[in-house]
Write a structure and sequence with these properties.
By secondary structure, the chain is mainly β. It has a single domain, classed as Immunoglobulin-like (Sandwich). Helices cover 4% and strands 45% of the residues. It starts with 12 loop residues before the first strand and ends in a 7-residue tail after the last strand. The relative contact order is 0.28.
């Protein structure tokens, strides 16, 4: 885990409008997959998701976040740690196979007991991260 004064990189923090399957005027839309900036196989980088718009609906706060990554073979992208820092679900990700587009499913739980899923994508590129 990082030191207490650490913060997630703003360049790898995305804002989510709402959880997957959120109804909009009675119409349920396909969940949008937010895409984090790509990484290289040798990079170990932090990625965060800003859920403040969703949490503000009820003045709620995050209490837990879990993640799953697919595909999930021995050489694939792996989760070093996941935590809530400054109210943001933050993941430290490492490895991955060049040319692979990974699906990362985040499940957030709030103090009020709400749970919602947030589908993310992350591509691992051939070379170093720009």
């Amino acid at each position: 885990m990082p030191p207490p004064a650490w913060t997630a990189s703003p360049s790898r923090t995305l804002a989510a409008l709402g959880p997957a399957g959120t109804a909009l005027r009675g119409v349920r839309l396909a969940p949008p997959h937010l895409r984090w900036p790509a990484k290289a196989p040798g990079d170990t980088l932090d990625y965060a998701l800003d859920l403040s718009a969703w949490l503000a609906e009820d003045g709620d706060a995050l209490t837990q976040v879990v993640a799953s990554i697919a595909p999930a073979g021995p050489a694939d992208l792996s989760l070093v740690w996941i935590a809530i820092y400054a109210g943001l679900p933050t993941l430290l990700l490492t490895g991955g196979v060049a040319g692979t587009d990974y699906a990362i499913a985040l499940l957030a739980t709030t103090a009020a007991g709400r749970q919602a899923g947030f589908p993310m994508r992350l591509c691992v590129n051939q070379g170093p991260t720009p």
